[in-house]
Task: structure prediction
Amino acid sequence: MKRNYTLVVLILVTFFVISFLTNILGALNPNVSESYALTETMAGFLPFAFFIAYGIMSVPSGFLLEKWGEKTMMILAFFMSFAGALIFAVDPKFNVFVFSLFTIGTGMAILQVVINPLLRVSGGEEHYAFNSVLAQLIFGLASFVSPQVYSYLVTNIDKGEVDKPLIGLMSKLVPPSMSWVSMYWIFAILSILMIIIILFVKFPEVELQEDEKVGTKDSYKELFKNKYVILYFLGIFMYVGTEQGISYWMSKFLYIYHGYDPDTTGADAVSYFWGLMTVGGVLGLILLKFMDSKKVLRIFTTLAIITMGFALFGSKEVSLWAFPVSGFFLSVMYPVIVSLGLNSVTKHHGSFAGILMTGIAGGAVIQILIGGISDITSLKTGMMIIFITLGYILSISFWAKPVINNKTISFKELFNKKNS
Result:
């Protein structure tokens, strides 16, 4: 099939927007908690509202995709994102915020199901691996940019820099002392722009591969009889719980225990966390060419546990750097767990992928646990749950028995190829 570069660019932009909308909650957490006088449990309920949408919508989205097609689903997803952001931006109450987060999360869950098969077809199967890596780099870039945009908006609105056109407009739109709401006006604008762009782009016919189809009820029943399916589901559950547990709470932790300003230093820490995760992902790709994926997972997870120890118990300066650096070590976990899981079953890969994506709900549940424990004890104690989730991920590197291992090359083979 002829490659459609326009659509490839659209999909890459979509990855950017998904990440821009998704990974801002950590930077917002301190201000949101202050605006609504939230307990830690209630603060933990916000990412719950967002990520539980993944648990609910991942599999149904697959069925709807086969029925309605990619273009309709993407427009639906961005309309939900637009509606969710707009209703909150217009009426910034706590209950509206919770509903808004679930609505936006539903849109993002739909997009995640749609865009990977679409990227394979539009960019060509032979370029899918490269394009997937490029998409993840762009995803990471957006995660870095989003907190920076937030910091720019909030600091300038709070300073009253109304002579700047965007700041002047946002100052009129957001309530006093709630400058962070300006991000949701940005989200609404981005979402409606994406709908307009999608309407003008021609989409190809996408023939889903076996590992992209959602499967039948019988395939799910058969999979759930395999203990490894449950174990890998828990792996994704624990990973997303870890990723969000660190990124969501770090700014608030740095504010409570070390007095760092959440609008500047805290937002930067969240930004660097995602930025270093992107850098770590590139290094991880290189290492996976030379080492067994289980060993890579074991090394990176062990270093993540050590880094989190420094983040939670280190000095002010050490904690400020350790939190972002943990993102570097988290970088390989998601792709390695997914690949180990899919390589551990011989059929029903599409159904299994749907089950694994449902595990993203770990980003919801773990936050409630951290918040609940924090209210009873302290945020530091609550965040120690991350040692448990990382411990489970570490265990995967010991018990995983994939049918197919990742292909590696030795340095000797590389040297011979270079001199042949």
Notes: DSSP finds 19 helices and no strands in the chain. The mean pLDDT is 90. The two ends are 35 Å apart (CA to CA).
